[in-house]
Specification:
- There is one protein chain.
- This protein is of the alpha/beta class.
- It folds into two domains: about 10-25 and about 40-395 and about 405-460, Rossmann fold (3-Layer(aba) Sandwich), CATH 3.40.50.12780; about 470-575, 2-Layer Sandwich (GMP Synthetase, Chain A, domain 3).
- The strands form six sheets. It has a nine-stranded mixed sheet.
- Helix 5 packs across helix 9 and helix 17 packs across helix 18.
- The longest helix is centred in the first third of the chain and has 17 residues, at about 80-100.
- The structure holds adenosine-5'-triphosphate and magnesium ion.
- Adenosine-5'-triphosphate binds near residues 225, 228, 229 and 342.
């Protein structure tokens, strides 16, 4: 079954000579020690993410190249070159030094995707200050929870966000010593108890020596998406840059002349690792859009900005599919040559839609907040099996394991055996702790293996197939059912735009399968369609796995990073408390 649906890649698909062609050979040759040596030697030794991402490109002809290009709805684009980014991040680093903020202190950023977010993030890293970018849509409560958990001493935000969300609850964040405000209208702010960032920047020098940081010094704090429970704060180090560098080459195929667009917000780890760090490490020009998803706008950006490498998420792809192919056909995308996706399983339908509508297959890849960078990916080096998340990248050892009673794990070597996905510890971007939860951190490891909490299987060709999160898997009449398999079967039906599947407690079979379905335009919810979809699923999956119940919904609940929140579907269905909803996308 797996091999029939392979998407073979032609030279025309790739358009440039890819970075990665020999999967087995490269995995054998690869070592993290050699990969570090590909980065530049820093003046003071050590490794600092911001120095590697910005400063090493800022002199010579590369300095004038666009590093970041900011798009806003009603304004012309703002370009920042590598040399300008170096100077601006130096200024911000000096602002922190003047305020007495140093290495190891914690800085939070709460803003939309404006230049100051990127400047503060990279400038703080230059200062050795640990950074945590937050989604600007968070309300006061989730902001305070995270700032307190991370013991933030500095907060960078905008005057409007401050007024709306923070002015009245600053006393709930006692560790904060400095609030730096950006005026959203580009002017100056004068809010008691805060400092105007523009003024501080104007007074600061644009020259500074980067703080010396080692590969194991803390750099970033990222909160997980909260898909399965309360978001956890994962701690990351400066050495993560090595993983970002390597994965930018293998999984995103970044070339110096690329125009790259990562649609993720830096409030989610993808928006920082691959929306800021990886493209800058590779010296490419990145597009940053301040606006939210809109099908016409997104196709317009891909076309007008001549985007060549695009990194997005399944939810966005499903929304483009829902918007329909005629919209896509209004745009010409001759520059686009590589498309990748992360965050959720990418349904085979979506991979094939990419080939049909964009003319390019979509490369699904897998990783987590905890892994800091891409671990398993579809790459230019091998054909795609739609529905598979690809193969482990060079430097990454993955396995399917089962838990033994003594707390250890056993690697399951037989192909197509289902078990927990595990990664051998030792890649540079591996998280180094959960904020205030050492016990949980330690529980994530068994011997040499980091346990991901995801269930998967590996086929005989070494491709990994996502089954589901351990928390979401449905146990029904002795079968273990992964929601993804059921959702993908439903997605094959032309009426279905998106599906979310849960298990409902049942006294006889343990759990029964229930599906929630959002429909494509032009289809009407009704009994006939409900029966048709149930029949379609039964035909595809068999009666034991197919849903017994199916409910139509206008939309499914998503996290802000775009993942279907099955735990919320389940809580609502069973009339239970909704739990932490801080990461729930508004309107879900
Ligand atoms: P929480 O840990 O708070 O429940 P989360 O796991 O969704 O939230 P993230 O770290 O943003 O937080 O997401 C990582 C998870 O997303 C993975 O463990 C996996 O379940 C899912 N995921 C990411 N990429 C893929 C993919 N390509 N295929 C299948 N699942 C994926
Ligand atoms: Mg998780």
């Amino acid at each position: 079954m797996d091999t029939q649906s392979i998407i073979h890649k032609s030279a025309a698909d790739l358009r440039v000579a890819p970075n990665f062609v020999d999967y087995e050979g490269e995995r054998c040759r690869f070592s993290w020690e050699a990969a570090v040596r590909e980065l530049s030697v820093e003046p003071g030794g050590g490794i600092n993410i911001a120095w590697q991402a910005v400063d090493r490109h800022c002199t010579g002809p590369h300095g004038t190249k666009i590093a970041l290009r900011f798009l806003a709805r009603n304004a012309s684009a703002t370009n920042i070159s590598y040399a300008e980014l170096a100077a601006l991040t130096n200024r911000f680093c000096n602002v922190l030094r003047q305020l007495g903020v140093g290495k190891g202190d914690r800085l939070f950023i709460l803003s939309g995707r404006i230049p100051e977010l990127y400047i503060a993030l990279l400038g703080a890293l230059k200062n050795g200050t640990v950074v945590s970018p937050l989604f600007s849509a968070f309300g006061p409560e989730p902001i305070a929870t995270r700032v307190n958990l991370g013991a933030g001493t500095v907060l960078v935000t905008t005057d409007l966000l401050f007024e709306r969300k923070l002015a009245h609850c600053l006393d709930q964040m006692p560790s904060l010593k400095h609030v730096l405000l950006v005026a959203e209208d580009g002017g100056q702010t004068a809010v008691p108890g805060t400092r105007d960032l523009a003024m501080l920047m104007a007074q600061a020098s644009d020259a500074c020596a980067c703080e010396q940081t080692s590969a194991n010094d803390l750099a970033l704090m990222h909160f997980t998406s909260g898909t399965t429970g309360i978001p956890k704060g994962a701690l990351h180090v400066h050495g993560a840059a090595i993983t970002h560098w390597v994965t930018g080459r293998y999984a995103l195929d970044l070339h110096p002349d690329d125009v790259y667009w990562c649609t993720a917000d830096p409030g989610w780890v993808t928006g920082t690792s691959y929306g800021v760090i990886a493209p800058l490490l590779h010296g490419v020009a990145s597009v940053v859009d301040r606006e939210e998803f809109d099908a016409e706008r997104w196709y317009g950006i891909l076309q007008d900005e001549r985007v060549s490498v695009w990194y997005t998420a399944p939810t966005a792809i499903r929304m483009l599919m829902r918007a329909g192919a005629p919209i896509a056909r209004k745009y010409a995308l001759p520059q686009l040559r590589f498309v990748a996706s992360v965050g959720e399983p990418l349904n085979p339908e979506a991979v094939c839609w990419g080939k049909d509508v964009l003319g390019l297959p979509i490369h699904d890849n897998w990783w987590q907040t905890e892994t800091g960078g891409i671990m398993i990916a579809n790459t230019p080096a091998f054909d795609i099996k739609p529905g598979s998340m690809g193969r482990p990248l060079p430097g990454v050892d993955a396995a399917i394991v089962e838990h033994l009673e003594d707390g250890s794990v056993r690697v399951l070597e037989t192909p197509d055996t289902q078990g927990e996905l595990a990664l051998r510890r030792g890649w540079p971007a591996m998280f180094r702790g959960y904020l205030n939860n050492e016990a949980r951190y330690l529980k994530s490891f068994a011997g040499d293996w980091y346990l991901t909490g995801d269930l998967a299987r590996r086929d005989a060709d070494g491709y990994y197939w996502f089954v589901g999160r351990a928390d979401d898997v449905i146990k029904s009449a002795g079968h273990l059912i992964g929601p993804f398999e059921v959702e993908s079967a439903l997605m094959e039906h032309p009426a279905v735009a998106e599906a979310g599947v849960i298990g409902k407690p049942d006294p006889v079979v343990g759990e029964t399968v229930k599906a929630f379905v959002a429909l494509n335009q032009g289809y009407k919810a009704g009994e006939a369609l409900r029966m048709e979809l149930l029949g379609h699923a039964r035909k595809r999956l068999g009666a034991a796995v197919a849903p017994k119940e199916l409910e139509f919904v206008a939309q499914l609940p998503h996290t802000r990073s775009g993942k279907i929140m099955r735990r919320l579907l389940k809580a609502r269905e069973l009339g239970l408390a909704e739990g932490d909803t801080s990461t729930l996308e508004s309107g879900s």
